[in-house]
# Entry
Amino acid sequence: MRIDPYSLELFLAVAREGSITRASRLEHIAPSALSRRIADLEEVIGLPLLIRSPSGVELTEAGHHAFVRATRLHEDLQSLAREVQSLSGQVSGTVRLFANASAIVGFLPERLKRFQAQYPLVQIALTERISDEVLRACLEDRADVGVCAALRAKPAGVDSWHFADDPLMVVLPPEHELSAKDTLTFEDVVQYPLVALQAGGALDQALRERAVASHVGIQVSVTVNSFDAQCRMVGVGLGIGIVPSSAASAFAGTSNFARRPLNESWGNRELHVLALRKSSRLKAVQALIDALVSRTTEG
# Structure
């Protein structure tokens, strides 16, 4: 029995996406070629791994078992490659970086560009996730480095460093009556319909907890899954939004918006760099951590 590691990687992508079409886009391979790879894998194993339907795919019982084992095998192969690469005298290899949306929008592009200029042999495998999932990926050693909203309580076994200040701001149409104020409180904001961000993220949790603590309700006009969509909805007048400064600068920096600081102590949001605590790290991983937490990267 010969199992191709690339076919396993494609199988994992299909299982995670629940769709051959979405997985093919993610892996940059034609859907027909990906489907053929999975069929060949099933033939080698001798059992069907997927239940195919017009709406997508589901794992069979054998598929669930294969997914667990294939995940471990893929991670072991990636770890093997990174460890061998680290034995050379140069800083090289692949670093798995997980980050939340505001870090990716506001800070990482410039910092990663500077890092790449200094370490051209290091590849960054960047994955966007909400802050809780970034932390979980670090704890489970699926991420070498994470960047996310500051933790309320740092779990044992995780190292954390300050990455950037990213205070919350209110974005609203320039003709909105709240735009007459220089700063806004949470009490000011919740009197009006909000364009809300995806449920489960650190910002969504913070706003809902603050609403409960303040004994006020949140009027949601529409819920979206990204900061750019949130600002787009605000721009056409569907509501107002609370976003990190990084997102406000990236997506609400035109005359179509008014931007006001959120005058609340809990609005002084920070982003941190996370990594699983280890006695030693791969050279490329440590180099990225040093670059991200160094004050010389600010600007």
